[in-house]
Amino acid sequence: MSVRGIEISNGLMLGLHQELLTIFSKHYSIETKTLTVFQLYGFGNYNEDRPSLKGFITEVTGQWINGKYLYNKVREVERGHGKYIKLRRDYLSLLILTAGYDNYGHYLNNSPFISADIRKEEGSNFNEASNDIDALYYVGYYVEDRQYYIKSKFTVYKMKTASWEILYWEKNYEPTFYTYFGKCVPTGESALSFYFSKDNSSLNKECFVNIFYGNNMQVKPVLLGAYCGFDRSNNPVIGKLIFEQVNDADEQNEKVRSKEVNPIFHHYLYSQRMEVDGILPHKDSDLSVSMNRLGIINFLIGDYLGFYLDKNNYLIPISFEVLNELGELKFKVNNTNFRGIGRISRTENYLISEFSEKNQSFSQFSLQVQPLERDLFLGHMLVYSGANVLNGRVLLWKNNKKLQKFMERNKEFYLNKADLEDVINTKISEYLEIHTPDIV
To answer: What are the distances in angstroms from CA 2 to CA 92, 157, 216, 378?
Structure first.
């Protein structure tokens, strides 16, 4: 059902509200005046185990409703700032169903709580056949807790409003939907933003969604986006989204309930979620995953020069530099330059390089934190250089001025071991020659 708003007269809203209160009072044999506003409308400091109008509407219709939204609308009418009030169309339908009527027309013609003048005035206000015209239907996908694959229904109405119904299989036989309603905010000419306030959410949480569609959103079978919201523990989360367009609400309903997982979507979304911890630090060092890691980075700062030994026993010069305590680094092999950042591994025994160049993302380099000897380090690399694959150990000397002068004089791709000092050759024989893997 569309969530677009509809204007109704204050008299109609007050009549419907009074009818609901009367039915509610009879159902629970309770006088509404004995209940606080919070309890009656079910928000703020209220007892979920005691009767509330919000709970009654949910019990009758099976649909969640925001009690505070309803209370705010009643207060707006009572203040009398205008003759009409704008109410969400889906909420009006739920209120009418709770009052015992099949639809708006049935209510308008039969309710004893509205006058003949209101019947005449409101007769043409609600066109039930126009609910889903100009709606775009999508099945949405994202991951929770890195791997848990979540499906949802995302529906856009006239590019103005949207509903996002997120499905959880909390029961084996029937899914539970948590629903957001919100406004569409155009962003430039190729993207849309959707703000979902907690007042229009069955989760009582806010969420923000950005979608990129390029041009002509209506003909794009797949849209890509991102969300920013809160997890079940109210910790901030962000992540990537995929929205797959379907033809209508029936197909959307069928596809979202299917437990089949599109492997292409799954691999695109895998681990594409970040969560903010629910515990704040007392000092900046508390943010460190390990107190040792900043110290390790500082220890590794410096220039490294060394060699990779290929299968023909030729030496390929290697240059590596850790620039600062952020872990920014440079790496050079065969006149190919890499830039990136180093992260200490969980076991704190390697500096893992993450290269920023997209076309070099398949290349890898890591430096062993514990030196083999004083200022002598072992590295591991997998680099695709032209038709060659450089895969294996690298021997590196840190801040070695003699080796730096040698490299400045010898800038060939390949070097002969005979060109090097005996002490360097000895180390190459000890740490590289017997460990060089065969390259298939």
So the answer is: 11, 7, 22, 63
